[in-house]
Amino acid sequence: MSRRGLFIVFEGLDRCGKTSQCEQLVNFLKQSGQKAIMKRYPDRTTTIGQTINNYLQGKQNLSDQAIHLIFSANRWEQQEELKKILEEGTNIVCDRYCYSGAVYTSAKGYDMEWCKNPDKGLIKPDIVLYLHAPKEVISKRSGFGGEVYEKEEFQQKVREAFDKLLQNEDNVVFIDASGTKEEVFELINQHIKKALEDITSKDQKISHLWV
Ligand code: DGP
Ligand code: NA
Ligand code: NA
Predict the structure, then answer these.
(1) pLDDT digits over 10-65, tens only?
(2) Residue 129 located in a structural domain
(3) What is the pLDDT of residues 77-112, one digit of tens each?
(4) Which of 21, 54, 149 to mutate to test the pocket of ligand 1 (most atoms within 8 A of CB)?
(5) Phi/psi class of residue 77: alpha, beta or left (left: φ > 0; alpha: ψ in -120 to 50)?
(6) What is the value of ipTM here, to two decimals?
(7) Is 147 a member of any domain?
(8) Which of 201, 191, 180, 151 is nearest to 20 (CA)?
(9) Is residue 208 part of a domain?
């Protein structure tokens, strides 16, 4: 029987290895005969995304509140498209989503509920893989780029906010990302296998977030 696609989200700090794990998972799903695409947020290719890109590169100054809503709008602008992709049976592997949205702004000192508000109603991921590694492990990896959030002290606040938010969500698994790429992928794959079995045997309605 045909099923809708699985909406898989990766979250974690800058340099935790998310992007390469996303790519590997998309390739793996395709090799095993499934339809799969990769998405990432922020999506810098849209008009809204260009504003985000300028902000992240320090070329455009925006208030914390304004950029928060702009990141959220960047997710909202593609919801219909994501829904169609899932309904036609394609799996979506997404590098960051609303959890980064809430966490990066709350790490600036804003109330978590306020931060979650604009993303309420977005399509809820079937599974969120939170890649998690000790500070020392991440520090050993290649250096930060020059974007506005890529500072050690801010990243520590982001880490605390991620830990706190994600431990209370019912669709999140914590993945120990301190091993090699292959070891981390193996952990991820076990959860994906189970999620694929679950969605075949269960109600396939798309759920929505935080409502
Ligand atoms: P990336 O392209 O994955 O490196 O993400 C760019 C940066 O933006 C990264 O430091 C994480 C941050 N970020 C991602 N999504 C959001 C969001 O919704 N809100 C805020 N404030 N920051 C975000
Ligand atoms: Na980054
Ligand atoms: Na984003």
Answers:
(1) 999 988 899 999 999 999 999 999 999 999 999 999 999 999 999 999 999 999 99
(2) yes
(3) 999 999 999 999 999 999 999 999 999 999 999 999
(4) 149
(5) alpha
(6) 0.94
(7) yes
(8) 180
(9) no
Query: Does a structural domain hold residue 2?
Result: no
Pairwise CA distance, residues 27 & 35, whole Å: 10
| CATH code of the domain containing 48 | 3.40.50.300
CB 58 within 8 A of CB 151: no
| Bridge partners, residue 93, by sequence | 8, 38
**Looking at the whole model, is its pTM more than 0.80?**
yes
Q: What is the pLDDT of residue 1?
A: 57
Q: Which residues line ligand 1 (CB under 6 A)?
A: 14, 41-42, 56, 68, 71, 95-96, 100-101, 104-105, 147, 149
CA of 52 to the centre of ligand 2 (A): 12
Q: What is the tally of structural domains in the chain? A: 1
Q: What is the pLDDT of residues 165-204, one digit of tens each?
A: 999 999 999 999 999 999 999 999 999 999 999 988 877 8
Structural domain including 118 reads 7-201
